[in-house]
Design goal:
The chain is mostly beta strands and 188 residues long. It has no helices and 16 strands. The chain is flat, with a radius of gyration of 21 Å.
Length: 188
């Protein structure tokens, strides 16, 4: 059990027969009336984000969640197959549990989030940045870089990312997995 004083980003709690992680919270003390905590909660089972207000001192049931390192092996009809890097146990994960599945390439290191008591997979997180090779993009026109113009580029995994005009086919770029956007070109 925890109270609203124990709230922090990432804390997992059981609420309305579901598991939620606190994405954002704010303690509010109005001039008139009791204090309360305004929160944004993300469901670990559906990915849906809801807003909720708890009165100050409200008790909530926390859930124990573990993050374990895994390596992506392959994808087939059953889902995405990953291997625990410490026990070498392989599991299959459904695509809806993965953030940005199009950015995963073979051998990619991932973190699988488990509900500790039930040993249930809640989600899969990619590292903040991944390095991918551009397989197709239109050539940029010289002198067309006065603004922050971008063009679509197809990555080796099939994902399509908006990149600056100076990026060419065969370039290796760093992609931010949280925003699904171009970060920088990788120096060879």
């Amino acid at each position: 059990m925890a109270t609203t004083a124990d709230f922090k980003n990432g804390l997992c709690l059981e609420y309305n027969n579901d598991l939620y992680a606190i994405v954002e919270f704010q303690h509010v003390k109005p001039g008139k009336g009791p204090a309360f905590v305004r929160t944004k909660l993300k469901s670990l089972t559906t990915g849906k984000v809801i807003e909720n207000t708890f009165s100050a001192g409200h008790k909530v049931t926390t859930a124990r969640v573990e993050r374990r390192p895994h390596q992506f092996l392959f994808k087939d009809d059953l889902g995405y197959h990953v291997m625990d890097t410490s026990t070498y146990e392989q599991i299959s994960v459904q695509e809806n549990l993965i953030d940005n599945p199009l950015l995963i390439k073979d051998g990619q290191e991932l973190e699988v989030i488990y509900h500790a008591e039930k040993e249930q997979v809640l989600g899969v997180e990619l590292p903040p940045f991944v390095e991918l090779t551009v397989t197709y993009t239109e050539p940029g026109i010289k002198g067309d870089t006065a603004t922050n113009a971008t063009k679509p580029a197809t990555m080796e995994t099939g994902a399509e990312i908006q990149v600056p005009l100076f990026i060419n086919e065969g370039d290796k770029i760093k992609v931010d997995t949280r925003t699904n956007s171009y970060s920088e070109r990788v120096k060879e």
